Amino acid sequence: MKSAEITGTFLHHEKMDKYTSWRVGGVADVMYLPTDKQDLINFIQSQAVDTPLFWLGLGSNLLVRDGGIRGVVINTRNRLKKMTLVDAETVYVEAGVPCALVARFCAEQGLCGAEFLAGIPGTMGGALKMNAGAFGGETWTSVESVEMISRAGVVTERAASEFEVRYRSVKGYPDEWFLATHLKLVHGDVVESQQKIKALLERRNTTQPISFPTCGSVFKNPPNDYAARLIELTGLKGYTIGGACVAEKHANFIINTGQATAADIEALIDYIQMQVKNQHGICLQTEVCKVGVVC
Prior knowledge:
- By secondary structure, this protein is of the alpha+beta class.
- Helix content is 24%, strand content 29%.
- The strands form 7 sheets. It has a 5-stranded antiparallel β-sheet with strand order 6-7-15-11-12, covered by helices on one side.
């Protein structure tokens, strides 16, 4: 049987710092840029089962270590980009669509409940993986079903009820990846939703260090508390290791002041965890995903 055609682009020895919001990271052995969802399915079906595959969206919530990534990085940004209104209350979104675009699209359709997505600096795939949230909203609140792809390239649609969803955590099928989702929303007022999005973005711009390279929030909020409050109480605002610095504007953000390495950022993460644990007895858990090889 003839193999399905692969039409995407291969990049070899690609530097990851230009694909991550922290602007750090070593070299990926191979990066694959799929043409669309079907091309991605064909590509995965063509790969040996022992080839390491890593999925990349907007590169936020991600720390790629200085030694880079072995295997293949699948870059979905602006590639798995289909987003359509399925019926009066359902929106279909592929994994590569930025969350901010999802928020705006839903508002334009007169659907409410997705406005908070405007405050998430990632793609829908990443939001599904970690149940990303902002300003009191969480991704999986609106998820009706998801399309998953297995290591063998088999696509399955699964109901949201098949997953264990918690704060910044989704457990279900570790050998599958998110391709797309159906979001079930409710009717609302277009202007009201757009105004809500505008207000959320203004709040983000006021409270977060958006003019510097960051990954978004570094740590999960512990039960009944806030990571930023604990870090600030520990006296770590402005604390620096190499080119990595705890943001003065929001203590749960680490900024790249210009010359940070991934090692600087990881060392600062570890230091924050140690100091908060020593002073307050609380173990801060990271939201950020650390991947790659340590130099």
